[in-house]
Design brief:
heterodimer, A: 310 residues, alpha/beta, six-stranded mixed sheet, 10 helices, 32% helix, 28% strand, B: 444 residues, four-stranded mixed sheet, 14 helices
Chain lengths: 310, 444
């Protein structure tokens, strides 16, 4: 049973269809990548899932029941893209306050904060203020606050922006651990290589509509262009064939070929074997998410246009 | 419920622990105490500062050369216009030679100018001296008779009694009521601005920090807004309470110290006056003091203070929600806040203008009606209450005013909550009044 199921969700503003009929579901323990260009409607979608906005139409099923913002919001952890913290408040007090707002008792909150602060080597921060922290430090704190109350669903909006590689890895490890322990994670980002590395499942939205949905492997299979990389000891004299066309050649040793319709990989290999060339490497080139993203989003207007919603 | 309590607690504690709050709470009463102290000290110091020589060859001044106010009069010392300053006099007064029956003017020579009040009291002295002289010389009235006549006339005191709505009359002491009303109205005016702006800045901070997004995913926007308003209101009440306590403590300390000093000063001043047997100044001061304290105690302090707390609290709540709505509709730029604040600050400023008029005519229809309309009532009604309930302000007016203010608070809060819940999450440009109007009144 999926932890979160979204059915035909719609939210129209006066001048935009911010979210237009989006459906998807997230399994427990999976990392779900929500991708899309700026202004695609990601934030509006996330705000409906966190209970900040009410959808105009459609329904959200959380843990098998209809989503009740007041009750279920406590089982969701939301980390907005920009630092959402009080600048002048002491870090310890701030963490305590936000944990208690999420329904934790004083003692429980204190214990959990101490554990996380120790884990992230933040013990000395307790009496400091946010204004004393760097952007990356603030990001770490924000992450701790988001996951402190052990939510079932964790929503992270650009969690790695401003983090150095060491701290990025630290948080990445924690995200994997949380997923392993059964939490579902929605991971919203513009950085495709990160989504590719971390997500089990991705969804691409553009102009308020879902344009792509599936596991990373499936998506790549779906958008592959039958490109293969071949490494040879030397380039054979005859390169042309009915089975493929050559897209690229690399220093007399490598080739990128596109297999034509009606032919298979064996037809390509056969051609080279007949040419007496020994093949040392042969593998398929799958498109990166970045390529798919650009392919799908390109051609549509770069920034979203305002329109009259009827 | 426990969550709104958490929010109130945070808003309250972060502000009360703030250094500025602690400083302003303790320094404001100290500042006023110091101000009063300085005024008293200056007054005392001035008592025998000025010496005026009277050159009287006509015999108007025979015995009465008491000092007046801060001026010491010395009869016929050996000085002239050339050397009076060297001998420590600041002025020299010449009586006309022709004596009593003259239209000639008395002349006061001095390098500096005297205050009008000082000149008046010197004039008064001359007049009295002349009267005494004439009575003694022409009608053979003796000294002690004159004294008893003067003493009797001084005891006359005008006490205003006003017929109120009830059968019983009431002490009307306009001067004290004026002062108290003015002070209370002004204090509410200032606090509406201070705490209203505090609410607005708090909301703006939450919005620009994007913490509103985190918090609203765990509490309702209304809870966040009300928590902030109530928390800051509690800060205001705490500050008032501290001020009342501190002012009571300081004034009793000063009360224990100052009168002692005054008495010593007054005694010394009396002893040094040649021929002055009557303790005129001391008497006058004591009478004045007794009169003032009598009038102050005739104000119904319990009523005034409890009405003040009511009108501060609900006036604040009435406006704070509006300030919160404005804070939620602007982005970072304080200039945007300025222009959106204008429609809210307008009625507050109008109220203080009406209040200044109402304090001189507490019965006028302008004063009556604006003390009932919630936009003005906190300030205008506070100015009228010290004049007497139910005398100047009938019970029905007070009741109606309070009811309407509470209702008004519910209405502004309801409207503001709708604007707030949309505004707090909206980034980009600032909202216009038209948009805010739409947010407030569209069906959710």
């Amino acid at each position: 049973m999926p932890l979160l199921e979204v059915r035909h969700l719609k939210k129209y503003y006066a001048t935009q269809k911010a979210v237009d009929d989006i459906s998807f579901s997230i399994e427990p323990g999976s990392i779900f990548g929500l991708l899309g260009p700026n202004g695609a409607g990601k934030t509006t979608l996330l705000r409906m899932i966190t209970g900040i906005f009410f959808p105009d139409e459609g329904e959200i099923i959380f843990d098998g029941k209809k989503f009740q913002p007041e009750k279920d919001a406590l089982r969701i952890g939301y980390m907005p893209e920009e630092r959402g913290l009080y600048k002048k408040m002491k870090i310890g007090e701030q963490a305590m306050y936000l944990a208690q707002l999420k329904g934790l008792g004083r003692r429980d909150a204190y214990k959990k904060i101490k554990t996380w602060f120790t884990k992230f080597e933040m013990e000395t921060w307790w009496n400091k203020k946010i204004e004393d922290l760097s952007k990356g430090m603030g990001q770490k704190l924000q992450f701790v606050i988001t996951v402190l109350h052990e939510p079932k669903l964790i929503i992270l909006d650009e969690p790695f922006s401003g983090l150095d590689p060491v701290n990025s890895n630290l948080i990445k490890e924690e995200i994997y651990k949380l997923a392993k322990s059964g939490c579902s994670i929605i991971f919203s980002t513009h950085r495709m290589e990160q989504a590719e590395e971390m997500c089990d499942h991705i969804m691409l939205v553009n102009k308020g509509c879902k344009i792509l949905d599936g596991t990373v492997q499936n998506v790549k299979q779906q958008y592959k262009e039958n490109l293969f990389h071949i490494a040879l000891d030397k380039l054979p004299p005859v390169l042309t064939s009915n089975a493929f066309e050559i897209k690229d050649t690399e220093n007399n040793h490598g080739l990128v070929v596109k297999i034509k319709e009606g032919y298979g990989t064996n037809d390509v290999l056969q051609h080279f074997i007949q040419q007496q060339a020994s093949v040392s490497e042969f593998h398929e080139i799958l498109p990166s998410l970045n390529d798919i993203f650009i392919k799908l989003v390109e051609g549509t207007a770069v920034s979203r246009q305002f329109q009259k919603v009827v | 419920m426990s969550k709104i309590w958490l929010i109130i607690k945070r808003e309250y504690l972060t502000r009360v622990k703030n250094r500025t709050f602690i400083l302003s709470t303790f320094l404001t009463p100290l500042f006023f105490a110091a101000l009063i102290g300085i005024i008293v000290i200056i007054t005392i110091k001035n008592t025998d500062k000025e010496k005026v020589a009277i050159i009287d060859n006509s015999g108007v001044f025979k015995r009465e050369t008491d000092s007046v106010k801060s001026i010491k009069l010395v009869l016929n010392p050996v000085v002239d216009t050339n050397n009076y300053e060297k001998k420590g006099y600041s002025a020299i007064l010449f009586a006309p030679y022709s004596g009593i029956n003259t239209t000639k003017k008395w002349r006061l020579y001095s390098r500096k100018s005297f205050a009008v009040s000082a000149v008046n009291s010197i004039e008064d002295k001359i007049r009295k001296g002349l009267e005494n002289n004439m009575l003694m010389a022409m009608y053979n009235v003796n000294n002690s008779n004159i004294d008893s006549v003067r003493e009797a006339s001084r005891r006359i005191e005008l006490e205003e009694k006003r017929i109120g709505a009830g059968a019983h009359s009431q002490d009307g002491n306009s001067v004290v009521a004026y002062g108290v009303g003015y002070g209370a109205g002004f204090l509410i005016y200032i606090t509406l601005f201070i705490y209203g702006a505090m609410v607005m800045r708090g909301v703006m901070e939450e919005k620009t920090n994007r913490i509103a997004e985190v918090i609203i995913s765990s509490v309702k926007p209304f809870e966040l807004m009300m928590g902030k308003i109530i928390g800051i209101g509690a800060v205001g009440l705490t500050q008032f309470l501290m001020w009342i306590i501190l002012i009571t403590v300081f004034s009793s300390i000063i009360g224990a110290l100052i009168p002692h000093d005054i008495l010593i000063q007054v005694n010394e001043a009396n002893k040094s006056i040649p021929g002055g047997q009557m303790n005129m100044q001391g008497n006058e001061a004591l009478i004045g003091l007794a009169k003032a304290s009598n009038e102050l105690s005739s104000v119904n302090w319990l009523l005034v203070v409890s009405c003040f707390i009511f009108y501060f609290l609900f006036g604040y709540l009435f406006y704070a929600a509006l300030f919160a709505a404005v804070g939620s509709s602007v982005n970072e730029d304080p200039q945007d806040a300025q222009s959106l604040m204008f429609p809210i600050t307008m009625p507050i400023i109008l109220a203080i203008v009406i209040m200044i008029n109402a304090i001189t005519h507490p019965d006028s229809s302008l004063a009556t009606w604006s003390s009932i309309i919630p936009f003005f009532s906190p300030i205008v009604m506070m100015a009228r209450i010290p004049f007497g309930v139910p005398g100047t302000v009938p019970y029905w007016q007070l009741g109606l005013s309070m009811t309407l203010l509470v209702l008004g608070f519910l209405v502004t809060t309801w409207i503001s909550a709708k604007i707030y819940r949309i505004g707090i999450l909206l980034y980009g440009k600032k909202a216009t009044w038209k948009e805010m109007w739409k947010w407030a009144f569209r069906k959710s």
